[in-house]
Description:
The complex is a heterodimer of chains A (145) and B (137). Chain A has 145 residues and is α+β, with helices and mostly antiparallel strands. Chain A has one domain (27-139): Lipocalin. Helices cover 24% and strands 39% of the residues of chain A. In chain A, strands 1, 2, 3, 4, 5, 6, 7 and 8 form an 8-stranded antiparallel sheet that branches. The longest helix of chain A is centred in the N-terminal third of the chain and has 21 residues, at 2-22. Chain A is globular, with a radius of gyration of 18 Å. The radius of gyration of chain B is 17 Å and the shape is globular. Chain B has one domain (24-134): Beta Barrel (Lipocalin). Chain B is α+β, with helices and mostly antiparallel strands and 137 residues long. At the A-B interface, helix 1, strand 3, strand 4, strand 5 and strand 6 of A face helix 1, strand 3, strand 4, strand 5 and strand 6 of B.
Amino acid sequence: MKLFYKKILIILFSNILFTNIVYSATFNWTKVAKAKDGSFELFYDKKSVLRNGQFVYFWQMMNNLKDIEDDIYSSISHNMVSCDSYEMKSLTLVTYKSPMGRGSIDIETIVPKDLPDYFKWEYYEKKTTMQGLVLSEVCNQPGLK
Amino acid sequence: MKKLLTFVIIFSSISLSSYAASFNWTKHDVAIDNSMELYYDKKTVFQVGSYKYYWVLANFLKKVQDNNLSMIGHHMANCETNEMKLITMVTYDRPMGRGNVNYDYIGPEEDPEEFVWEYYDPKIMYGDMIKKICNIR
Lengths: 145, 137
């Protein structure tokens, strides 16, 4: 029995050590929703959800599943949200030629600089839109002050 | 043995849940003249595309201006050149990013001309921090 507990302890310690190393610089995507027509799915990284001042910031990933244009299969963006109004702006956007933010990079954009016209608050209804569902998860994340 | 196992399981679940939604600052250094100290958050350093993105906290210890005692910012670094760009910055009237917000700033929106790569020598405090951040896997 003691040997059994020892083995479990070793596994748990290794797990803590491993997760601490992995979490240093890799995304851990949580899937939130898939479009009804199956065209895309949205993920966000829980540990990247952080409040700074009046806004909450988070990293999001989108997989394009149908009607792929320009060979862009996924994108990763850093977004800011006003949780009072469910409005969002994207700060950075990187598109990839493989799913899950992998493969070669297609476009790297700092939105407020490169596409200032797109850097504006967009409202998303929290129950009926895919992005709204993500914002709802982000804004209601336990521990978010 | 059972007690130890219970402790490890509890610690493990607390440590995993604490990753959600709070900064976990690692102190980098204090300026030679003690005017400020710099921190960064290891757990939210991400390589996205060609750059590293990370959160930084500075506590202003001397010559405090406009009651800005601390600042939290989101920066991006080019690890090949040791250059950085400041994306967002919020200043607070208390240390460690606490208290009231004094100033909320989105660099590339408010000062697009200032949103340029700035080189930091690895021998100085911020440059050394970029090097450390770039070495995080």
